[in-house]
Structure formats: structure tokens, C-alpha cells
Write a structure and sequence with these properties.
single chain; seven-stranded antiparallel β-sheet; 43 helices
């Protein structure tokens, strides 16, 4: 779920059968009566880490013009209108992220193809029962969208025609267009004129225009403001008799109209819902129950149809739009396409090669085939429409676009090998549109439904004895007599069901697939043309001398940490290394240390409606296979398209790369990637990129099908540094797309600069099909033959591995890491991840992004090409320096070291904080503040030690984005006594979700007690909680209690319970009593340190006590799956975000996580908070939600910055542990914490030095710091500055790396909440409305039995109701 999903309200109607039904008055609220007094109110929140998501710079107000809202899925701008001379434009992630959804869908079809009004009525009834699956606006009345697709009701239209004096329509040769026009009558007439001229040009006759009668007053306020003028056009075609040719002609006409309209001022206000001889779509920005009342046509008994597809939309990103309601022209889609950017790029890439005789040479007129400004559903519909209009059946089109997981299917290859052949053929032709999806489709002849390969959307079907077939995303949408049901079931992963309306047949999954697969001899084509790259042996000895290896490592940016903690660990153990404590170093663009290019990229990850999947438990549906070679004309099946090479993994060793060079069809060519600086550095990188792209262009035009971009050289030259391979790959990928050549060749990176799973993911995500990490393999070989390794293995201190095994282990670890990265985004196939650009960029400017990463989000700008060249050169020169000739430098990016990278959490900081909280002296805390501010100088700025001067809070060296700002105020300072109390401020403080098990019992309980004392909230984390903690202490003497004998510094009345209890699917320690003792229930979707992944607890930390609380076994590692199967739908979204949004920054801590996840997933909370706060205000919802933010908080400065950016509450994670005694040893994952903070070993826990009072003192210091700054700014309450970004200004500093950061994204302001933050936080807990629980508990038949032995029982009918 993008963070913009809160832009409108889910569940406009009460749902009595759900305890999570939303109130029609308040959607999001928080707890009341919290503080030291415990309550048993259960509240629900979602921990959502900031991944990507974006906030449009031209934020869409609901009241904006139709032009801004009706940014149609088919209309393209003048710049993106294509003819055969223009270049394709790659998809822009900012546009794509705007539109995602999760919905309710279904269809009803009469097998006898008999039209009836009952079909329409039943569809509207079923649609009304899916209101809970849709969203609506802040007015609780403007729906995200609902609609129906039916066959054209000719009887109804002929009766209308008769009244108008129009002759009956020739049903074979007439089409009906459902059109959204501009509201302005004059503009509508202009649009009509264009439409009529195109039809006339194509030889079609406009028979009539009809104004569709609608019930405008029933529409919600916001939807009414943007409601289009809705018309129908009746068009006759005389030159065609074949029904498919007629549909094709209508398709061409619509495309021509769209192109013509794009050059008009009203172009973005024109949209065809449908234009067909067979189907018509009625839809709008309406709630489910409103659709049938809004369109009077749908109420008429004469409106008859043999089938109906219905859809209720929930847009999870931005304001909904009339055209984006569904069904689309062919599809109704419940789900999300997670690979949409890559799919769009590839569709644009193949435009020049897509040809079919059915178009009679008019392919240029129907381009483009996708639109980044449209929704993922609209683009999938566009792709399906292209296939179907090109002669494919709907079933075949769906099998190509959304293939099932056929590779590991238990019976498919045995019983239906022809189906496997079909999928094998097309896997190299079309990348899967991957993501959770239930798709309903119809071309008027066939109606069907299919599920994605994971089956993460529900779909049930049933057939009755009156020959009616029903499919729905849930049961209970219609009252069906069970005795009349002759067939029923559910669609499993990848399954399909179709109804042939012409022949009156129902085809279930295998029948459908077999009929499609037998249409061509796919097996024969594969056997004759497709090659498989057989695994080749790893090299058995190094190819370089140790000194040469060192020089290469230095030149390509390796550090000793990379070699020892990453490469060698992977070579030894065959898995990614685990680390802890989060990422507390500066962003790459802010660092004074040089970084390689990959460090500027952060992985996006799935959030709620596009759930993460589990690579361990769902490996059957995942694949790293990729095909190399030319991808031909996908519209025409033939043997030549099968001429490709299949790889089982994108990781190539040297021998396998050599095999590819020998393939006679691929005609591989190497393109060196070095830039020459002999004539100066400036401009050299840009010139080289142009030359590389030109060389790639020439090679492909001359028949090369495999481009190998290589930084391999016999001898490194000081004046010829290597272009960052990611930059080279991205530039060539984008160049070939823009020149229509991308489908003609694959890209392989032969590189030294790739050793982490994140590096592989970046290269593949930006266009490489495979990677040969030759220096990483060479490093593995060197490690295995080193004396140290040999001795360790000989002495039994390290597992024995051969030199070949070491390299294979490295490859195995990379493969597993790639699977995890794919699964974070809910993607199953590497082939779909390729080119999908599922990253956000922090610190690269437009110049670089436009050259190599076009379409990726880079909201804060950053480095130019010349600045990147300088940073690249800073590594390269180390290979030629006497000072660094003997050993590899340790940059300190992972572990802190003297002279290495600055870490926010460092031993010196810990010591100063310990002194401050234990001595209770303000002067000691001031020294701690000074330490935070006085970071290593890498900027030019002023600094003062005067705590009353606001510059005191300005850091000398920015570490995070907030450090780039300082406060300003036009008010005079006020006395400190006028500022709200520290006791009031600390109630806004929370601690992070640190589980018992990751940290010790002593730490966990001390933190909980401290937070309860100050009225804040501690978080249990995911590991459960001991029931002994739920009762206030009454037996304390001299600071000790027999109830909790392991703690000191206690007081009578202390409670060790965590106010926030954390829950998520598959997680441990959650019991009913655990939940009952919560003030908030926080359902963990993702977290900053490892977003999209499950929790991880090493076996050595699972003691008997921890195992008892988690209902598991001692010593067994606990890796819980990411939440997915039961957290995927809009109902779950309503449950998860019911009361609270919590945003976690990428720099949050963790007890154990893969290093690549800690370093490279998620983004700064400053970006996510800005986006969320301002989107909520834009859409009138800010008052309904409390925003809490955490990630790297250490001081009052962080609190104030978060407040100015819009946060109501503030979370402290690692720093809370430090205040209770943590010394930042960074060995949490080993169970060897020297002070017992993060260990389960009893002898180490006995060393725990903390008392609850230490943490209380810390938070009071932070609150006083906040008060002091508020006084200086002239404000009395924290409320007064929340959301006031005008109090921030960029610091006047000069960064080392670049002067091109753009901070306007964060400083922008669309207004402030109507209520104060305190009012928002203190509002009454809303009612869930009438829910089934209340009904049962008040039933006289149930009450006498409750609380007694035995189980009370009562039978009730189950049905959906709105």
C-alpha cells in the first residue's frame, strides 16, 4: 500500500457482519484515556514503513477542474503522441505510483446467451454488497468508482430510437460508444465535431447522439464537481461484415480520436468508456449502491443483457477519477500490477516490432499501446485489448499476460505438456504482468475470470440449473438456493474459467488452457530453436595475482567490510550475512565518504494491497529464469520467436559467459565501459556514455542479439576509470528503448563492481538480463586459498568448502537474496523484475536520471554527471596510490571504526547519554546535545554552543534530510514558563516495536515501565508478552519487587505492560489475553530495517522463556513470513489502518536482518511524512488520523522537525535502548550483548545496568529541549507548529558532493489541519457501528451461557450486506 492510500475513506456503508466496519463519521482516530492509567480499549494501527510512494507536486484537489481529474487512461500529451518517426518515452514512476487499487469484482452470465434484465439487476445487487471493498472521498459519498459491463441492450436502444424518429439499428453493423465529455457545452461540441470527422474519414456514419439520462443529485459532492457530460454515440459501419473486423475498425477509430484530441485544449477531458458492437460499459466515480440509481438506463426493464461484469474500485494512491472506474473496455481487475513500470517500458520497446496482417499496415495509427498516466488496470486492459483486436482470444491473451506458475506444477507437465510448451514459448516473448490479480474479462463472445500465479485474490464460482454462471470475489453477494447449484468451486493460483456465450459452454481451467495451447506447435518450435545454457564449472584457480586483485577492488569501490562481511561470508555459508541495529550512517549524497552508485538507490517494497510474498514458503511460484536474445513480433506466433537462450539464474560465471559468446545466433559483442580523463574530467563521462550508446545502437542494427557491457581489462589505466556499470547499463537500456531497438538484444553486465544482492537487483531492475561478477568470484577464490581460511578449515573452526563450492555458495546466496528482494515487492518472476525500475533514488540529479534511469523518482535531486565522475575517480585513484597499496580500506559503512563513516549511534554518544540520564544534570545533557550537533565537519557552516541560540540545533554535518533545515520565526521569543509542560509533551512519545527475544526481558520491561510512568506508549514488538506484566506492582520495597526480581529502580504502581501490542500474520506469541491487554493493536506491515520481510530471531536467542511466550521450541530460529495471505484486501486495509498510521524511516533499528535489507530498503521518513500529511490535507482527511513517525530520533531537534513536517507523535527506538544501558556493540544478532540489553544469556542479562528512571529522565530532557526551542520560536504549544513547514528553511551550507539538492518537496505546503493535533489525538474513540459481536452478546439465548461451562451456540444466516 502506498502511503497515499489514506487519501480517501474505505467502507462508506456500515457492514454489520464485520467488527472492523468503519464509522460514517470518523474513519481514523486514536486512543483516549491513555497515560499511566491503563484501559482495555483495543485500537488498531498499521506500522507502515516509508517505501516509495510519492506526493504529486501538482497535488490534485478534489475540487480541481475536470481537466485535472479526468487525466484519461488513453489520452496522451502532445509530447508523448507517437507516430512512426517519434521515439518512445519510458514510463515515469511518479505517474505510475499514482494509480493502484484493490477492489470487489464478479460476473454473471447466461449460458443460453439470453438477455434479461434480471442479469443486470443481480449484477447491481451483487455490486451493492461489495461497498466494503471500495473507497470513497472525505464526503463519504463520492466513490472511488463502480461500474458494469454488459452486452449492448439493442431492444432498449431501439425503443429510444423509435421515440426519436430514428430507424431501428442494424445490430451487425452498428457500434455504441459510451463517452465522457467536458462539462462545458461548447467544448463538448468541439469534441463531438472531432469524433464525427474521424468517423467520416474512416467511412463510418454517425447515426445519432444520445444524452445519457442520469440522476445528478445522488452523486457525492466531489464526484459531482468533476462529473463529465455523459453521451452515447451510435455509429454504423458498412464496409465490414466480420464481427472481429468491425470491432477492430472501432478500435482504430478510437485511437485516431485520442490522437487528434491530444492536441486540443479539451483533450484530457474526453474519454471513451467503450466503443463496441458487442459490449457497453456504464461506470463512474460512484459508490456501489449509487451506480444503478445514477444511470436511469440500468433501471429500465428493457435493458437486457446475457452477461454482466461488475466492479467496485478502491484506489490506493490518489484521488479517483471518473475514467479510472472499472470495468475497463475488456477487463475488471481486482489487484495490483507490481511490475507496471517495466511492463510499460517493454510494451513501448516492442511497438516497432508489433505487426499483424489484420491491421493492414495501420499499426502506426494505433500506437502507443500504454500510458504511464493511467492506472495499472487501464494499462493491462490496453495490452489485452491490443492482443484481442489483433486476433487472439481473450483466454490466450490472459495466459500470455498473466501466466500461471507452470514450472513446478505437480501435474501440468505430465498431463498437459502442451500447456507447459505454450508458457515456455511466451516466457521469452512477454514479461508477466506480475502482482496479485483477479481478472474478469469479456469481448462480448466469451466471459471469463483468472487468478494470478500466487492466487492472492479470492474468486469463487457457481452454476445453477437455470444455466446461469456466477463468479465473485466473495460469497454471499446474491441469495442463491443451494438446491439449484449444479457446480461450484474456487479459482486456485493461476486458474481460469470461461463461459462461451455463443456455444453455451463452461470451460474450467485445464480445458481452457489445453484448447489455447494446441493452437500452434509450440513444443516443436521450442525443441528446434530454444537453447538452454547448461551450468558450467567454476574456475578452480585465481586468474589474478593478489596484488592485482587488491588494485581492482580498490578501483571499483570495495572496502574490507565488503570483502570480509559480505563476499567471504556468502562464499563460506551460502547465504546473505545478518547484521543488526539499522542503518545509522548518512545518506550517500550527504556523506563525506565516497559511495558507489548503487548506494543512491533504495528498494521499493510491497505495502498492504500489493502484499509481499514469502520466498521460502512460496518458492514454487517464483523463478529466476531469464531468456536472452531477440524478442520478435509477439502478435504473430512462429518458430523464429523461440530462438533464444534460457538461463536458470541471472548470475553467470566466467565459463558460462564464454559459452554465450560462442552462441552463433546471439552474436554477442563486448562494449568496454571506460571513460578517458586525459583531456579533463568535466564532460568526459557524458561523452563516453554517448559513445557507449552509439556502439550499442550500431551493434544491434548489425544483428547483435547480446550486448556485453564490460569493465574487464588486462591492465587498469590511471586515466581511464570505469564508468559505473549501473550507469552504463541504464543508459544503454534507455537508449535502445527510445530508438525502438530494445527488443532486438539483451544486455549482460560483465563487471567488477557487483558483489551485493542489492547490486544485482539494481542492474537487473534497470535493464540487465544477467551479470557476470568476475571480481567477486575472483575474491571468493582468493579467500578460499588464503592461509587464514585454510588454517580455519583445517582446525575445524570453519566448514570445509572447495574453491568451486565457495563460488557456488556465493551464487547461491545471491540467488536467494534476489528472491527475497523480488518477494518484498510481491513479484514472483525475475523476468518481470528486469527493467521494472522498482527503486527510489536519493541524491542523483535530473541529468543522471534522464540519461540512465528515466522515469524513476528522485525527489530531492542531487549529483550531476561531472560530480558522479569525480566520486567515481576518487575510488579509481586508490588503485594507483602508494598510500593504499598494501591493504583494502575499511570505510566503516557497516560497523563504526576510527576514521570511518560517521554513525549516528556511536559509543561516545552512548556514554554521554548514559551520564546525562544517570546524573540528572542538564549540563550533562547539553554536552550530549553538543555531541549530536558537532558531527565531523564536511560542510561550511557556523556553529555555536549557546543552547538559547537556534543555531545550536543546526548540525555541522548533515546526516539525514532533516539536518538540511533550520528553524526560522517572525515571532519574538517568549518566556519558557508560557510553554506547555514537559509532562504534556512526553505523552506524544512512543518507543519502537522491539520484540522480547530480540532484546532481553530486563530491557523490554524497563522500557515499558518508563513509558507507562510518563504516559507515553511502549511497543511490545512481535514476540508476545508475559502475563505477569499486566498487573500493576504493589510489592515494591527499596526499588525491588518479588514479581519482577530481575529489575531495580521500581515503584509501586509501575506496570510493565506494553500499551501497544504488535500483531501480524504468522507471527508468534499472540493470544486473546495478549490482545485484551492492549491499548493499541499495531498490525505490522513493514518496518524500516527490513521492509517487506518477516521478523527474524536467531535460534541461539530463543531461550526456554522466549520459546514459551512464542509457543515455539528453544534453539529453533524464528523467521516469520511477511504478512500476505490474510492481509491483502480492502477489508483488511480498513482493519489495518483503522486508527493509526505509523511511518518508519529506513534508518530504524533491528535485532537481526540481512545487511542488504538494512542498507538498501525503504526511504527517509521525512519524505514519507511529508507525502502522507499533505495528501491527507489535500483530501480533507487529516483530522481523521494520527500520524506517528519514527526512525533515528535522538533529540528534541528531531521531534521539532517531525512536528513541523506534520507528525503528531514521535517514536524512539534504538535511543531508548541506549538510554537504558546499550553501549552500541552491534552484536545483537549474536546473543553476546556485553551489557545484557540484547541477549538471552542469563550471565549477560545479569549485567543489565538500566532502570526505568533513566529512560524517564531522557524523555524529560528531550521534552525540555522541545520547550526551549518553542520558546525561542515564540510558540506556546507543540500543536502550534505541527504541519507548519513555513517555519523551516534550507540551511545555507555547502555540501562536499553537490550543490544541487532540491528541498522544495518537503517545504511545500497545502494547508494545515482544521483541528489542532491535541484535538485529533484526544477525540473520542469512534464506534464501529452495529456489529455482529454486539448482537450476539446481547442475545438472551447467548447471555445465560456465556461465562459458564460449555459453549453457547446460535445459528445465523451468513450474507453480505451494505
Amino acid at each position: 500500500m502506498s502511503l497515499q492510500s489514506v487519501a480517501h475513506v474505505n467502507g462508506c456503508c456500515l457492514k454489520p457482519t464485520s467488527v472492523f466496519a468503519s464509522s460514517p463519521h470518523i474513519l481514523f482516530t486514536d486512543f483516549v484515556n491513555l497515560g499511566s492509567k491503563r484501559t482495555n480499549k483495543r485500537l488498531f494501527g498499521a506500522t507502515v514503513s516509508k517505501g516509495l510512494g510519492r506526493f504529486q507536486k501538482d497535488r490534485l484537489f478534489w475540487s480541481s477542474s475536470i481537466k485535472s481529474v479526468l487525466d484519461f487512461d488513453h489520452v496522451v500529451s502532445k509530447q508523448s503522441t507517437l507516430d512512426h518517426h517519434s521515439k518512445p518515452k519510458v514510463a515515469n514512476l511518479e505517474d505510475i505510483l499514482a494509480e493502484r487499487g484493490a477492489c470487489g469484482v464478479g460476473f454473471i452470465a447466461n449460458l443460453d446467451n439470453k438477455g434479461s434484465h434480471q442479469i443486470v439487476q443481480d449484477a447491481l445487487t451483487a455490486l451493492g454488497c461489495m461497498e466494503h471493498r471500495g473507497g470513497c472521498g472525505a464526503d463519504n459519498d463520492s466513490g472511488d468508482g463502480s461500474g458494469v459491463m454488459t452486452s449492448i441492450p439493442w431492444e432498449f436502444f431501439n425503443k429510444w430510437a423509435a421515440k426519436e424518429g430514428i430507424a431501428p439499428f442494424d445490430q451487425l453493423h452498428t457500434g455504441v460508444g459510451m463517452v465522457f465529455f467536458p462539462q462545458d457545452e461548447k467544448l463538448m461540441e468541439q469534441a463531438k465535431s472531432v469524433i464525427e470527422s474521424i468517423f467520416k474519414q474512416e467511412g463510418l456514419e454517425v447515426l445519432a447522439w444520445r444524452s445519457v439520462p442520469v440522476n445528478t443529485p445522488i452523486v457525492g459532492f466531489y464526484a459531482r464537481e468533476t462529473m463529465p457530460n455523459i453521451q452515447q454515440v451510435f455509429v454504423k459501419i458498412n464496409k465490414e461484415d466480420d464481427i472481429d473486423d468491425i470491432e477492430r475498425e472501432f478500435y482504430i477509430c478510437r485511437k485516431l480520436i485520442e490522437k487528434k484530441a491530444s492536441s486540443e485544449t479539451w483533450g484530457s477531458e474526453l474519454y471513451f468508456c467503450s466503443l463496441s458492437n458487442r459490449t457497453i460499459v456504464y461506470k463512474g466515480m460512484l459508490r456501489s449502491e449509487v451506480l444503478g440509481k445514477f444511470y436511469f438506463d440500468l433501471q429500465s426493464e428493457d435493458y437486457k443483457s446475457s452477461f454482466a461484469i461488475y466492479h467496485r474500485r478502491y484506489s490506493t494512491n490518489t484521488s479517483p477519477r471518473w475514467p479510472l472506474a472499472q470495468p475497463m473496455r475488456l477487463l475488471g481487475h481486482n489487484g495490483e500490477i507490481n511490475t507496471i513500470q517495466g511492463n510499460l517500458n517493454w510494451m513501448q520497446s516492442r511497438e516497432n516490432s508489433m505487426k499483424s496482417p489484420v491491421w493492414r499496415g495501420r499499426e502506426n495509427e494505433i500506437r502507443p499501446f500504454g500510458n504511464p498516466k493511467a492506472s495499472d488496470s487501464a494499462n493491462l486492459d490496453s495490452a489485452a485489448e491490443l492482443f484481442i483486436r489483433s486476433g487472439r482470444t481473450p483466454e490466450e491473451s490472459m495466459m500470455i499476460l498473466v501466466p500461471e506458475a507452470y514450472k513446478n506444477h505437480p501435474t501440468l507437465s505430465i498431463k498437459y505438456p502442451e500447456v507447459v510448451d505454450f508458457y515456455n514459448y511466451y516466457k521469452g516473448q512477454m514479461e508477466a504482468w506480475d502482482g496479485p490479480a483477479l481478472l474478469l474479462f469479456s469481448d462480448g463472445k466469451t466471459v471469463g475470470a483468472c487468478l494470478d500465479r500466487n492466487g492472492l485474490r479470492p474468486a469463487r464460482y457457481w452454476r445453477t440449473d437455470d444455466n446461469v454462471v456466477y463468479v465473485a470475489s466473495e460469497v454471499g453477494v446474491l441469495p442463491i438456493d443451494d438446491s439449484k447449484v449444479t457446480m461450484k468451486g474456487r479459482l486456485g493460483p493461476g486458474m481460469m474459467i470461461t463461459v462461451d456465450l455463443i456455444n453455451g459452454q463452461v470451460y474450467e481451467n485445464t480445458e481452457v488452457k489445453k484448447r489455447v495451447a494446441l493452437s500452434s506447435p509450440y513444443g516443436k518450435w521450442i525443441a528446434e530453436n530454444m537453447r538452454t545454457l547448461e551450468p558450467a564449472n567454476f574456475l578452480s584457480s585465481p586468474t589474478m595475482e593478489n596484488e592485482t586483485i587488491l588494485r581492482h577492488q580498490q578501483a571499483f569501490g570495495y572496502s574490507s567490510e565488503d570483502v570480509q562481511m559480505v563476499i567471504e561470508s556468502m562464499a563460506s555459508e551460502g547465504k546473505e550475512p545478518t547484521f543488526c541495529m539499522g542503518d545509522d550512517i548518512p545518506l550517500a549524497v550527504l556523506s563525506q565518504k565516497s559511495h558507489i552508485l548503487y548506494d543512491y538507490f533504495k528498494q521499493r517494497f510491497a505495502q498492504v494491497t500489493n502484499p509481499a510474498i514469502d520466498p521460502l514458503r512460496e518458492g514454487l511460484v517464483m523463478s529466476l529464469e531469464v531468456n536472452l536474445g531477440k524478442r520478435g513480433n509477439i502478435l504473430e506466433a512462429g518458430p523464429e520467436n523461440a530462438s533464444q537462450v534460457t538461463l536458470s539464474s541471472p548470475v553467470l560465471n566466467e565459463s558460462e559467459l564464454e559459452s554465450l559468446y560462442k552462441d552463433p545466433v546471439l552474436k554477442a559483442q563486448t562494449i568496454p565501459t571506460f571513460f578517458d580523463i586525459r583531456k579533463g574530467l568535466d564532460g568526459s563521462l557524458e561523452k563516453t556514455l554517448n559513445k557507449i550508446c552509439e556502439a550499442a545502437d550500431d551493434a544491434v542494427r548489425n544483428g547483435c542479439q547480446l550486448l556485453v557491457l564490460s569493465d574487464r581489462a588486462d591492465e587498469l589505466e590511471a586515466t581511464r576509470p570505469a564508468v559505473p556499470i549501473l550507469l552504463a547499463v541504464g543508459a544503454v537500456h534507455q537508449h535502445l528503448i527510445q530508438n525502438g531497438l530494445r527488443m532486438s538484444a539483451s544486455i549482460v553486465a560483465d563487471t567488477a563492481q557487483c558483489f551485493s544482492t542489492h547490486h544485482f537487483a539494481c542492474l537487473i531492475g534497470y535493464g540487465a538480463s544477467a551479470v557476470c561478477p568476475y571480481l567477486a568470484f575472483e575474491t571468493c577464490r582468493q579467500w578460499r586459498l588464503s592461509k587464514k581460511t585454510v588454517n580455519l578449515m583445517r582446525n575445524g573452526k570453519m566448514q570445509m568448502v572447495t574453491i568451486e563450492k565457495a563460488q557456488n555458495n556465493f551464487k547461491k546466496a545471491v540467488n536467494a537474496g534476489l528472491m527475497k528482494i523480488l518477494s518484498k515487492m510481491g513479484i514472483s518472476l525475475l523476468s518481470s523484475y528486469c527493467g521494472a525500475q522498482i527503486f527510489e533514488i536519493y541524491g542523483l540529479g535530473k541529468e543522471i536520471v534522464n540519461v540512465a534511469f528515466t522515469g524513476s523518482v528522485s525527489n530531492i535531486g542531487g549529483l550531476t554527471l561531472d560530480e558522479l565522475a569525480r566520486e567515481t575517480l576518487s575510488f579509481w585513484v586508490k588503485a594507483f596510490s602508494e598510500e593504499t597499496a598494501k591493504r583494502l580500506e575499511n570505510f566503516g559503512f557497516i560497523q563504526m571504526r576510527p576514521g570511518g563513516e560517521y554513525h549516528g549511534n556511536n559509543p561516545e554518544m552512548s556514554k554521554l547519554l548514559h551520564k546525562a540520564v544517570r546524573e540528572k544534570r542538564e549540563s550533562a545533557y547539553s554536552i550530549y546535545q553538543q555531541h549530536l550537533a558537532n558531527r565531523p565537519i564536511n560542510v561550511i557552516s557556523q556553529f555555536t554552543l549557546n543552547p538559547t541560540d537556534l543555531r545550536y540545533y543546526v548540525h555541522s554535518s548533515p546526516q539525514v534530510i532533516r539536518d538540511l533545515f533550520e528553524f526560522k520565526s517572525d515571532r519574538a521569543p517568549i518566556p519558557l514558563g508560557k510553554v506547555e509542560s514537559a509532562a504534556s509533551i512526553v505523552e506524544r512519545f512512543c518507543t519502537g516495536g522491539m520484540s522480547l527475544g530480540a532484546i532481553s526481558r530486563e530491557t523490554h520491561e524497563a522500557i515499558a515501565i518508563a513509558m507507562n510512568r510518563i504516559g507515553g506508549k511502549s511497543n511490545s514488538g512481535e514476540g508476545g508478552e508475559d502475563p505477569i506484566r499486566w498487573t500493576p506492582l504493589s510489592d515494591v520495597v527499596d526499588g525491588y519487587s518479588p514479581t519482577l526480581p530481575h529489575l531495580k529502580g521500581l515503584q509501586n504502581g509501575d506496570t510493565a505492560t506494553s500499551a501497544i501490542k504488535q500483531v501480524a500474520s504468522g507471527r508468534f506469541g499472540v493470544t486473546p489475553t495478549f490482545l485484551v491487554n492492549a491499548d493499541q493493536i499495531e498490525i505490522k506491515i513493514a518496518q524500516g530495517a527490513k521492509p517487506g520481510e518477516g521478523g527474524q530471531l536467531p535460534g541461539k536467542k530463543v531461550s526456554a522463556y522466549i520459546a514459551r511466550l512464542r509457543n515455539s521450541k528453544p534453539g529453533v530460529p524464528l523467521i516469520s513470513p511477511p504478512p500476505h495471505h490474510d492481509i491483502y484486501s480492502i477489508e483488511d486495509l480498513a482493519q489495518l489502518i483503522f486508527d493509526l498510521h505509523q511511518i518508519s524511516g529506513h534508518d530504524g533499528g533491528t535485532g537481526a536482518s540481512p545487511i542488504s535489507s538494512i542498507k538498501h530498503a525503504g526511504g527517509p521518513w521525512e519524505m514519507g511524512l511529508t507525502e502522507t500529511h499533505q495528501t491527507l490535507i489535500t483530501n480533507g482527511l487529516r483530522e481523521r488520523v494520527i500520524l506517528r513517525v519514527d526512525g533515528g530520533f535522538k533529540s528534541g531537534f528531531d521531534v521539532l522537525m517531525a512536528a513541523a513536517m506534520g507528525a503528531d507523535e514521535y517514536g524512539f527506538g534504538s535511543i531508548a535502548m541506549i538510554a537504558t544501558g546499550c553501549v552500541m556493540a552491534r552484536i545483537c544478532h549474536t546473543n553476546n550483548c556485553p551489557v545484557g540489553v540484547a541477549s538471552q544469556r542469563e550471565e549477560l542479562r545479569a549485567r543489565f545496568p538500566g532502570v526505568p528512571g533513566d529512560l524517564v529522565n531522557y524523555f524529560l530532557y528531550v521534552a525540555e529541549e522541545v520547550r526551549s526551542t518553542l520558546a525561542q520560536l515564540g510558540y506556546e504549544k507543540l500543536d502550534d507548529i505541527i504541519g507548519h513547514t513555513e517555519l523551516l528553511r534550507p540551511r545555507d551550507i555547502s555540501l562536499v558532493k553537490t550543490q544541487h539538492l532540491d528541498l522544495s518537496y518537503i517545504l511545500s505546503n497545502v494547508g494545515i489541519p482544521k483541528w489542532s493535533s491535541t484535538t485529533i489525538r484526544k477525540q473520542d474513540v469512534h464506534s464501529n457501528g452495529p456489529v455482529l459481536d454486539d448482537i450476539l452478546l446481547s442475545d438472551v439465548e447467548v447471555i445465560p451461557k456465556s461465562g459458564k461451562m460449555g459453549r453457547p451456540g446460535k445459528r445465523l444466516p451468513i450474507f453480505n450486506i451494505c
